[in-house]
Amino acid sequence: MTRTTFARAAGVCLAAGAVLSAAACSGPAGGGPSGGASDGGGTVGIVEFDTTSAIDSLFVDGARSALEDRGYDVVSQDPKGDPGQANTICTQYVTRQVAAIVVTTFALDQMAQCMSQARGAEIPVFYIGSPLLDGMAGSVDVTSPAPINDLFIEYLEAEGVTDILTLDYTPGTPCRIRKEYRDEKLADLDVNASNHEFPIPGQVVDAQNATAAWLAAHPEGSGTFAIWACFTDPTAGAVAAMNQAGRTDIPVYTWDFNSTILDPIKAGQVAATLSLDGAAVGAQVVDLIDDVLAGGEPQGVPASNTVLTRDTIDAFLAENPDALD
After folding, report:
1. Residues β-bridged to residue 9
2. What architecture is domain 3-142+277-303?
3. I need a surface site. Which of 17, 87, 162, 224 has the fewest CB within 10 A?
4. What digits encode the pLDDT tens for the residues 32-57?
């Protein structure tokens, strides 16, 4: 990559092999791209994951705000969790000759077309979600598998848990890495694991239905149980199923705190979760973009995080009132 490649002016829609829709060349409208004022920083295209995912929306909002504060224009589109659509969106950004592209949550191998075309156009691609991998210009790693998984394993061992339900989404990099860490630790334990893969969109309802079926097969008193969910959305579904069944004997361990699970944390239904600061993550990715566009090398940085439990949630919210926004 050359530094001059990245000094492209914002707001130009070209037609080199593909034609952008009118919405993609305009400002905000419904689910289409959104733009912000620029002081000459160029345009950055964000490939969202799915707007029904609260944590992904936090990352997108944080990145958009930080980019606009630094003088970039921002365009973003929602592929609704579909890698094919995500690659199409990325192709549009390449055609537009944006200064940089940000991909949220999707895995590197899901974005092969995007990466190939961006590489050909010498446009750097940054990821929110993954560790830094070959081909990425930078990444903010939000996977953070250890803190919650370690607490989960400690609970299984201390309480002699016999059966667990896991709510997984292996196409997403954070969920897959969290699952791999969990499974490595579980290999040494004598625990029966029921693994359920939920879809996106539809993650909350599907997780609720899967949990309800699992609860029916594991009645209270027939063992010692726990649930593992790879982020907040399936956790909300699991809690809804437990509430419907009147079950209070099963803790849930999860990631990516937001307001939908505040009451379950305070009630102890959610034993532990991890808070990721969307605004901070957004600022981190913009720092990476600024550095690479100025000629720096690719970097991967961990997202700052905080473990939340019933005992710490009130103090955390007192210090971070914006965490519920």
Report:
1. none
2. 3-Layer(aba) Sandwich (3.40)
3. 17
4. 333 333 344 799 999 999 988 888 88
